[in-house]
Amino acid sequence: MDQPLSDQPLWTPSEARVAASNLTAFRQAASARFGLRLDDYDALYDWSVAGKEDFWRFLWEWAGLKGDLGGVALADGDRMPGARWFPEASLNYAENLLANAPEGEAVVFWAEDKVKRRWSGAELRAEVSRLQQALKAAGVGKGDRVAAVVPNMPETLAAMLATASLGAIWSSCSPDFGAQGITDRFGQIEPTVLFAPDGYWYNGKSHDIRAKIAQVLTELPTVKAAVIIPYINETPDVSAIRGGVTWGNFIAPFAAAEPRFERVAFNHPLFILYSSGTTGKPKCIVHGTGGTLLQHVKEHRLHSDVKPGDRVFYYTTCGWMMWNWLVSGLAAGATLLLYDGSPFAPDGNILFDYADAEGMTLFGTSAKFIQQAEKSGLEPMRTHRLDTLRALASTGSPLMPENFAYVYRAIKTDIHLASISGGTDIVSCFVLGNPTAPVWAGELQTAGLGMAVAAFDDAGHAVSGEKGELVCTRPFPCMPVGFWADPDGAKYRAAYFERFPNVWTHGDFIERTVHGGWVIYGRSDAVLNPGGVRIGTAEIYRQVEQLPEILEAVCIGQEWDGDVRVILFVVLREGLTLDKALEDTIRKRIKENCSPRHVPARIVAVKDIPRTRSGKITELAVRDAVHGRPIKNTEALANPMALDEFRERPELEG
User: Fold this and answer.
1) Per-position DSSP letters for 106-167, written without gaps between them
2) H helices within 448-550, ranges in order?
3) Least crowded by CB within 10 Å, which of 183, 295, 564, 647?
4) High-pLDDT (> 90) share of the chain, %
């Protein structure tokens, strides 16, 4: 076992903080309600899995959510897929968010240093009401799709809530997607209305996307109205866009009133999200109304300790599931702090400036942001107050132990650092934070309540203290409703249930620690297997990215001489070259801190590494490029030209 463990936790919550937490209040309430002795988190977790029907219903009641769950909590509960949660329920996602949205500032928006706006709860409801009426007039009803190519801005939130209020289905991507990437997604779901801005800001520059939207609409014949949000221009010309109408003109005929809500079934589709698409046209993953709401309420209120009046931020685009997660924070009574643009514009400190200026309580970001902040020499502890900040969450890729240490050394000593992991597949988390427990370097603190998470070996047996497949062995409410245009469910079953029957297999490589936490080692389908020894790529990245000469790295397994050999590609700091001395340093570090099996057979310098539009390195696309295989959907990549550097490399031919 080579877990990156430490002898002491990096942070332990005070007794007062534990006592005041939502998690403690919920645990005590559940104990009283069911006559149980849930004396600690472990007991609460065990009950949440064993008594899952009681747990999820009680969470609904405790959170005061609106709607009717009906008399049946779970039907066909022994089937995965096939289990049906609350089959008699009736609810509306938007109703629950707007009912709990703060009356004061509900939404604050920064677009780098270019735009700042804020909406009260009343202003948000008024905008949702007018949009609701406008969408209905445009032909949108229950089950129809509304698509959006949008920044993370207040209008996007209002459009989503108006869509959900009607029982319609929302699907979004970010405005930096290419035309083909947009149509590959939205062309499958046949939307009735499309929302888009006239452009967007990034790193101080404006990018007009009206011509791209006009092109996209030629491939989306079902769109009746294309609503253009003025963003980089006050009065954008939309005459060249088929069905084009500005936001103001779209809602102008309708007076603000209290929004009305179409209550729908628990599993009625709410969101359509997309797989990364690096292995073909993106799969359309359909998420249900009740499962999304319940899971997000659980993760915000219990695992993140979000309370009414808190101010919650996550750096995300609208093409990443963390946007869907973020906006559900309204259901916990939080103010949403939205941001669009570069996280480092203009001088590297903008997000920490935002935290101070707006009283941020939860700061959500990616592991890559934390790594880059450290490499850039940022020390917010010295330059910012961060006095309101109680929690910092990280996801997108494994957060290395050294990055944990950086947070406590350079950002804030008294903070709940929660490395979290789940994904688009469940629009939430399998493993995440526990605000009542210590934080150990390199570890995700706990499996989510109600989530029967385990690590399976190849034979399907649960293991601890060794790496295995991340699985969930019992049904949970936020499993997808299914995939769009997959009428018999064949693609859905193949994606998650083929490896181990009646068990969800997620595709991550994970290990249970001696502290009861978890370590993520990267995607299991990109796991290296030299000589039959399974190696997670994150283990190698942990060592390599600590070297000051290296900005970034990607590691793959190359098929070679009947086996697999480890190939490491590195991006070097400007002005440096990959000489023998640096190669020796890299190999020595990996050998000493991992094992001889981890040492790459070849190390190759490249200028850039391909990544998805949500910022994730695409190991599988690199692997296919190295082997001369076609990459089926380069539109899923933010920088597809980077793949050219990995094809036909002479260094890999001998």
Assistant:
1) EEEEEETTTEEEEEEHHHHHHHHHHHHHHHHHTT--TT-EEEEE--SSHHHHHHHHHHHHTT
2) 490-496, 537-544
3) 647
4) 85
Q: In this structure, what DSSP letter does residue 72 have?
A: -
pLDDT at residue 277, as a whole number: 57
Q: What angle do CA 527, 533, 535 make, to 5 degrees?
A: 35
165-174 per-position pLDDT tens digit = 999 999 999 9
CB 612 within 8 A of CB 636: yes
- Please tell me the least confidently modeled range out of 88-92, 130-134, 163-167, 183-187: 183-187
pLDDT tens per residue across span 141-189? 999 999 999 999 999 999 999 999 999 999 999 999 888 889 989 999 9
Using alpha carbons, select from 615, 605, 607, 540 the residue that is nearest to residue 569: 605
User: How far is the C-alpha of 571 from the C-alpha of 528, rounded, in Å?
Assistant: 20
* Paired residues of 288 in beta bridges: 269
Residue of 310, 254, 425 lying closest to 21 (CA atoms): 310
Please tell me the predicted confidence (pLDDT) of residue 276. 65
Give the pairing type, strands 169-173 and 145-149: parallel
**Largest distance between two CA atoms of the chain:** 71
Nearest C-alpha neighbor of 14 from the set 420, 438, 516: 438
- Spatial CA neighbour of 547 closest among 585, 598, 577, 580: 585
Cβ atoms of 513 and 529 closer than 8 Å: no
Gap between the Cα atoms of 248 and 251, Å rounded? 6
What pLDDT digit, counting tens, does each position of 404-428 carry? 999 999 999 999 999 999 999 999 9
Interatomic CA distance for residues 261 and 278, integer angstroms: 37
Length of the chain: 654
Return phi, psi of residue 521, to 5°: -110, 15
Question: To 5 degrees, how large is the angle CA 545–CA 548–CA 553?
Answer: 30
What is the C-alpha separation between 203 and 184, in angstroms, rounded?
27
Report d(CA 318, CA 300) in Å as an integer.
Answer: 19
- Over residues 250-275, mean pLDDT: 97
The DSSP letter of residue 263 is -
pTM (2 d.p.): 0.90
292 or 398, higher pLDDT: 292
- Give the range among 207-216, 431-440, 631-640 with minimum mean pLDDT: 631-640
Rounded CA separation 277/283 (Å): 7
Q: Residue 64: beta bridge partners?
A: none
Which pLDDT does position 3 carry in this prediction? 46
**Calpha distance 25→435 (Å, rounded):** 13
Check if the beta carbon of residue 573 is closer than 8 Å to that of residue 548. Answer: yes
- Sequence-ordered list of residues with C-beta below 8 angstroms from that of 557, at least 6 positions apart, any chain: 528, 529, 530, 564, 565, 566, 567, 623
Contact 602, 608 (CB under 8 A): no
* Cα-Cα-Cα-Cα dihedral sign, residues 21, 23, 25, 27: negative
Q: Is 180 helix (H, G, I), strand (E, B) or coil?
A: helix
CB-based contacts of 358, cutoff 8 Å, min separation 6: 108, 311, 313, 337
* Contact residues for 212 (Cβ-Cβ < 8 A; gap 6+): 178, 179, 182
* Angle, vertex CA 630, rays to CA 321 and CA 320, nearest 5: 5
150 vs 172: CA distance, rounded Å = 7
- The whole-angstrom separation of Cα 452 and Cα 171 is 29
Which pLDDT belongs to residue 7? 83
Q: How far apart are CA 235 and CA 229, in angstroms?
A: 9
